[in-house]
Amino acid sequence: MSDQHESKVAPQASVRLDLWLWAARFFKTRSLARQAVETGKVEVGGQRAKASRAVRVGDAMRVARGEEAFEIVVLGLSDTRGPAGVAQTLYAESEASRLAREQARAMRVAERTGYRAPETKPDKRARRLIRALGDIDAM
Questions:
Q1: Which end of the chain is more exposed for a tag (fewer CB within 10 A), N or C?
Q2: pTM of the model
């Protein structure tokens, strides 16, 4: 029985890509990680990879998630999802990637600064005007 426990504690040589992305908290579920890998949003060593690809320490990756893109190097392996602090020790993000993400986030915030959501629902007259904007012939 102790042999089984020792095999779980022993350091791993590799982990499946989708499992590692889930454990490193890039994706909320393992199926989302698998789907991202299959749609080409994850590159390992500059090439598209399969979800079953083995990830090893030192592998360089590019992970696109939504509007953000991460360029990382694998520092540790894990097949279990733990706290965010532990997950962040599994990889190191390049400084250029971090700066690019921060600049893109600042641009998105700057684009939204002029928009102000209405405080109340539009009344009957305002709804008619809104509908008319979509159909020029209605006016």
A1: N
A2: 0.72
Q: What number of CA atoms fall less than 13 Å from residue 74's CA on the CB side? A: 26
Q: Which two tokens stand for residue 73?
A: 């190097």
Q: CA–CA separation, 58 vs 34, rounded Å?
A: 21
Q: Indicate the helix (H) or strand (E) that contains 131.
A: helix 124-134
- Name the nearest CA neighbour of 24 among 72, 66, 69: 72
* Residue pLDDT, tens place only, 98-129: 999 999 999 988 888 877 778 899 899 988 88
Note whether 36 and 21 are within 8 A (CB).
yes
How many structural domains are present in the chain? 1
Type of residue found at 100: A
**Domain ranges, residue 84:** 10-111
